[in-house]
Amino acid sequence: MKEPRNSQKGDLARLLRFLGNASGTHRSADRPDRVLVEVGSRSQIFSRALIDLAMTDGLVRSDETGLVATAEARTFLRRWMATREEAFLDQHRQSEQRTLSDDGESLHVTVNLAESPLAQLARLKNKAGTPWFDPDAIRAGERLARDFQFAGLQPKMTMTYAPRLAGRPPAGQRMASPLSDDIVAARIRVNGAVEAMGPDLAGVALDICCFEKGLETVERERQWPARSAKLMLRTALMQLHRHYCPPAKPARRSHTWGGEGYRPDLGNR
Questions:
Q1: Locate the DUF6456 domain: which residues (predicted)?
Q2: Are 95 and 117 in contact (CB under 8 A)?
């Protein structure tokens, strides 16, 4: 069976949505190549070729009541709507193919570069054409965001519909559910990162990396001048990178105590 073109798929979807779950009578319209389809008080004209294509593909059938959409029509509409939604999302995201390693296996995934403010900030350039944010700073911010999310520190924004259980102890006597060691470790890492950046820098880093606020939003909420959040964030992320990857300490010089009459060998100079 020949696959319909995208334009034909849109026309088929229009026909199927017009029919819905009801049956529609059909008769010739003003021209031989057009068909008037009536469903209740509604009527619409479709091409005869489209009706034939829908019947050939098994999307509609004709019986004594008129045109009726088949069960395959619902599957066709779901796929068509999913394709349209994917196309709409592609207009508002910047996709990039990346390869991830998982237990020795390579996984090819599609990453939306516009998903988080950090991904967008990583593409900023200065006047010289070099990245405004050092790649090490971006990686430090992503590491902070991963620990923050894994630690469960993101506030819930949706209502909980879990049923209330009868016989619960009073709120003051409830036992807190134990946290796993990994979650506790992640919270310790977040606290250490906040302390390393300091109170002035940690706030903007948390707002953008963890709460995914934009630079303009941070400046408006904090009443900062324009473009100041970008400078503060770069300073915070570089401080965070030094916290995660501290510079190597210089090697200690060894000292040797010489005995009485010892003279160092200066060599020939």
A1: 110-244
A2: no
The two tokens of residue 265 are: 């060998």
Domain count, the chain: 2
What pLDDT digit, counting tens, does each position of 58-94 carry?
Answer: 888 887 777 888 888 888 888 777 666 555 445 545 5
Q: Verify that 130 and 236 share a domain, yes or no.
A: yes
When pLDDT is cut at 50, 70 and 90, the band that residue 188 belongs to is very high
Long-range Cβ pairs for the range 243-248 (8 Å, 24+): 243/140, 243/192, 243/193, 243/196, 243/197, 244/140, 244/143, 244/193, 245/136
d(CA 102, CA 83): 29
Instruction: Give the pLDDT band of residue 127 (cuts 50, 70, 90).
Output: confident
45-50: list long-range contacts, CB under 8 Å, 24+ apart. 46/11, 46/15, 47/11, 50/8, 50/11, 50/12, 50/15
Rounded to the nearest 10 degrees, how much is the dihedral formed by the CA atoms of 78, 81, 83, 84?
Answer: 180
- The verdict on 131 and 210 lying in the same domain is yes
**Coil, strand, or helix at residue 63?**
strand
Range of the domain at 216: 115-156+180-244
